[in-house]
Amino acid sequence: MFRRNCDGAGLFDTNGIALKDVPLKEISVHAEVHNLVANVTCKLVYKNDSKDLVETRFVFPIDADAAIYHFEAEIGKTRIVAKCRERLEMTLQSDFKFDHDLEIEIVFSDPTKLMVTYEEGDSKVGSGILALDCLTVNFLPMFKEDTDARNEVVFLIDRSGSMNGKNILQAKESLLLFLKSLPTDCRFQIVGFGSTFSALFNEPRDYTEESMETALEYQKNLTANMGGTEVLGALESIYAKEITGSGWHRKIIFLTDGDITNQPQVISLVRRNVKTTRLFAIGLGDGASTSLITGVARAGGGKSAFVRNKERLQPVVLQILQLALQSLATDVELTWSITGDAKGDAIPAEVSRQEEFGEPSLPFHRQAAKVQILELADKHASLVETLKDKEQEKTEVARVQKQIVALSTSANVISKFTAFVGVDPEKLGEFRFL
């Protein structure tokens, strides 16, 4: 749920500097676990040891798949509870000059108007309790293994400057474990990227003594000397090449320690190629972006994992490789007989090819909301990426965004289009929205 020993967590001033005068005095974590669902509450107590009032920012890194649905803060005798509301954006005209003070006054259209609503009751209906039923389902199918399937594995290694130090050493050790664990009937390729990218071979090579010697020499001399973290071009180059033969399946194993500025475009590219190529991602170190790592793995029908310390490296590498080498299940059918007048939404035509559906994070309803929000956000990003000024596509983008906002605010789970707004619970009845 949260990271230990993370330098980017805690209380900071408005300039992003850690507040030494307001140290963490106490921390407690309470977890309720029901099968694959966990509800986790974290309580942190800080104390201002100085005599001055301080303006602070609270930073608490959270995995991208975790659904945050409640936040509250007690400052002195004041208690603030966060409510999820839609983000509003306001921009000034490009020719506006900042040569004088700008004052903006926002007023209610009719703040004194009283509104009374009522619903007619049904005298025939007795008292009762509202109950909402839900069901979690784990599918454990037995598929016939395709013994003729062969794998083409592409290792995509971050060699940007941010990888220098511990992370590039972890990347080298990971690559060594991958190479030593590859089956002899596979083909493989290594692509390093930074501001540019380069491939070890012209095309994926068969696993031979010669190709392995070349790869091990590359691994031995692996350094973080390729500039910035720009993975889009490297991925486009990999996808542009045809798979090397009939019956071969391409798998990308992506290793990085950082974040990128064009994440929606990268995720959209991975999703467009998921029918031919699966992608697995490993985040190295505490600075790896959870939204990037989990996002590309989800879009690529693969699995994501993180290596925070050296002890965890080997099991993560072996697990990811084992999953990547699994045979693909095709022509899968799910028959579900529903009796009576029950109605529901059809499952997606494309089923996520992962070993499990969702991650254990929160009570089922909010977990389900989080999964839907992530799917809709990915769909929104793909629509924006392919938008060609068509009115129909613009309408679809707006519709998907509206769906995300409605789901986010109703479940109180934040999304890219919503944010938490601090509210005094004692004045919640007076709280109005524009």
For the largest beta-sheet, the strand count, sense and barrel status come to: 7 strands, mixed
- Give the overall shape, derived from the CA principal axes: globular
Number of helical regions: 8
CATH superfamily of the domain at 151-325: von Willebrand factor, type A domain
In CATH, the architecture of the domain at 151-325 is 3-Layer(aba) Sandwich
Roughly what is the average pLDDT, rounded to an integer?
Answer: 80
Strand content: 15-25%
Overall strand count: 14
Which fold does the CATH topology of the domain at 151-325 refer to?
A: Rossmann fold
Features of this protein?
434 residues; 8 helices; alpha/beta; globular; seven-stranded mixed β-sheet; three-stranded antiparallel β-sheet; VWF_A; VIT; Rossmann fold; vWFA_dom_sf
Topology:
Elements (H helix, E strand, L loop, with lengths): L9 E3 L11 E11 L2 E10 L10 E3 L12 E4 L2 E9 L63 E9 L7 H16 L5 E7 L3 E3 L5 E2 L2 H12 L11 H9 L7 E9 L6 H10 L4 E8 L5 H10 L4 E4 L5 H12 L39 H22 L5 H21 L6 E6 L11
Parallel strand pairs: 7-8, 7-11, 11-12, 12-13
Antiparallel strand pairs: 1-4, 2-3, 5-6, 6-14, 8-9, 8-10
Helix pairs in contact: 1-2, 1-6, 4-5, 4-7, 7-8
Keywords: Coiled coil
InterPro entries: VIT, VWF_A, vWFA_dom_sf
Protein name: VWFA domain-containing protein
Task: Describe the fold and architecture.
The chain has a domain at 151-325: 3-Layer(aba) Sandwich (Rossmann fold), CATH 3.40.50. The chain has helices at 166-181, 209-220, 232-240, 263-272, 290-299, 313-324, 364-385, 391-411, and strands at residues 10-12, 24-34, 37-46, 57-59, 72-75, 78-86, 150-158, 187-193, 197-199, 205-206, 248-256, 277-284, 304-307, 418-423. With 434 residues, the protein is of the alpha/beta class. Strand 2 (24-34) and strand 3 (37-46) form a beta hairpin. Helix 1 (166-181) packs antiparallel against helix 2 (209-220) and helix 7 runs antiparallel to helix 8 (391-411). The longest helix has 22 residues, at 364-385. The strands form 4 sheets. Strands 7, 8, 9, 10, 11, 12 and 13 form a 7-stranded mixed β-sheet that branches. Strands 5-6-14 form a 3-stranded antiparallel β-sheet. 23% of the residues are buried. The chain is built from 8 helices and 14 strands. InterPro entries: VIT, VWF_A, vWFA_dom_sf. This is VWFA domain-containing protein. Residues 8-157 form the VIT domain. Keywords: Coiled coil.
